[in-house]
Amino acid sequence: MAVNTKDTIQAVSKRQLAMERQLDELTAAIKALQARVAELSQTPALQPTPEPAARMKAASTSAKEAAHRETGEITPEVLVMIAAAVTAFLGKKVRIRSAKMLQSPYEVVNPWSQQGRVYVQALHYLRSRG
Q1: Are 93 and 87 within 8 A, CB to CB?
Q2: In terms of pLDDT, which residue wins out, 71 or 85?
């Protein structure tokens, strides 16, 4: 089996040129991303500090959100954000008909289940290893 060295050299040089072009494109993309990161890191410093009224509004908003969390209600703002996220994901407009907060399984502990786990863990310590 004879290998044509001229064809092999041409194939290798084509691959090398393609890799160099790809490397140049990646380098340009990295430079663009670095410039964007630098731009974004400077943006907050240019924004004015919030007015006292805006701070009071933010505090009252966080108090409302805490109250909604305690009662399990979902605020209209959160519903709008959820609808926007689902619309972006599906690519078509959606309408949320109902939503409610679910309790985490870690928040509700059945006493019988807890006692069973305590009992099983206690059995592990009673056995003698030997």
Answers
A1: yes
A2: 85
